[in-house]
Write a structure and sequence with these properties.
globular; three-stranded parallel beta sheet; 3 strands; alpha/beta
Length: 145
């Protein structure tokens, strides 16, 4: 990832309180060659992602066709997830999106935008939106809408 992606993600992850931590687990992209279809690379990525999800984790797939929430809606989801007590694994696909296995495993599909976004950008936007939702729940002045 470009340095700005790592810096942006780390900035918002660092701001979160101890009651809501982000831990980034990167999965290398599947091998793409001219002779092999991208479907196989996406499936390989998906299997490796799912192996990193612990049993009992709530799986949330970042998906362009997923549910679109406003900040207050995301804050309500975040609060529900925190009250549930399970870790939340948020899956961000590579350049070809998430595999069918990842989408099937997801308990919730979330869309940040109807636009197709680069996965590095999604990482930063998602971290910022989680921080914004967290700040709303804690009456922190960051969210001023």
């Amino acid at each position: 990832m470009p340095a700005w992606v790592d810096q942006g993600y780390e900035e918002y992850a660092r701001r979160l309180g101890s009651d809501c931590r982000l831990q980034l687990v990167e999965i290398p992209l599947g091998k793409r060659t001219r002779g092999s279809p991208n479907v196989q690379a996406k499936e390989d990525e998906g299997q490796r992602m799912l192996r990193r999800v612990a049993a009992g984790d709530r799986v949330v797939a970042m998906e362009v066709s997923g549910k679109s929430l406003d900040t207050e809606g995301l804050a309500r989801c975040l609060e529900d997830w925190r009250q549930d007590g399970r870790n939340v694994a948020m899956l961000i696909g590579g350049p070809d999106g998430l595999s069918a296995a990842c989408l099937n495993k997801a308990e919730f599909k979330l869309s940040l935008s109807a636009l197709t976004l680069p996965h590095g950008m999604v990482r930063v936007l998602l971290a910022e939106q989680i921080y914004r939702a967290w700040s709303l729940l804690h009456n922190h002045p960051y969210h001023r809408a």
